[in-house]
Structures are given as structure tokens and as C-alpha cells.
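FIELD: query
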Amino acid sequence: MSATAVLLAASHAALLVVSLILIRVDIREHRLPDAIVLPSAVGLAGALAVAAALAGDTTPLGRAAVGGLALFGLYLLLRLAVPAGLGGGDVKLAALLGLLLGWHGWIELAAGAAAAFALGGVHAIALLATGRASRETHIAFGPWMIVGAWAGLLA
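FIELD: result
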């Protein structure tokens, strides 16, 4: 196994652990702590930069940067349009997930981003239909962003 493959596998494993922690925190506390999200984004960006250098191909790194910025921008626009709809942690998490998805490709980026909204929407509809939530209920969206991103990678 090449050094690039080992680095990418370790990065994905670390991000999976971070994902599970963030899901737990967001479900319980409705927040995505900067102390976890921001260092994870910096660490992933660094690992991807090293992987690109080792592989001698910066194309995936450029795509990751564009993916991170694009998803961050989309979520920032949504936050500005409907401030009660998304939290600032969701916007920062979008940058982290956009890096990951963008590294893998445009299809993965689009699929992961779309899956977050589809899965979150189905969950919200199910809660409304069963009477376990109302239109005023706050539902953590971070877990759906994370599950959607991983689904985008696996699909």
C-alpha cells in the first residue's frame, strides 16, 4: 500500500471518528463545536495537501478546495436567508464535508450535499407525521449532513 493510500485511509478513519462524535453532540446539544469542526477541517486540508504532493497530482486537492468553499458558500447563503433554519456550526461543518467530498469528485460532492437534505427532510416529515415534532421543533441537521456526506462517498 502506498504512503498516499495509507494517509488517505488514516484521514478517512479519523474523520469517521470525528463524524460520530459530532453526530452525538449535535443530537444531544444542538451544536457543532468549533473546537472539533475547525481543527478537523484544517487537519483534513493538510492531510489532503500532503496526499496530493505524495501522489504528484494536485487536481483532487483543487477540487477539494472548491468543494469546501462551494458547500460553505451554499450553507452560508441558506443561513443568511433563513437564520433560524441553520446554525453557524452547520455552515462550518459544510466546509469540512465539502473538502472531503470534493477530493473524491464532483458527483460525490453533489450526491453528498443532496443526500443531506433528502435524509433530513424524510426524517423531519416522519417526525411531523408521527406527532413527535411540530413546525416549531428544532431538529439537528448536522447528523444528516454527515450521514449524507458518507452516503455520497459510498454511493
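FIELD: remark
The radius of gyration is 16 Å.
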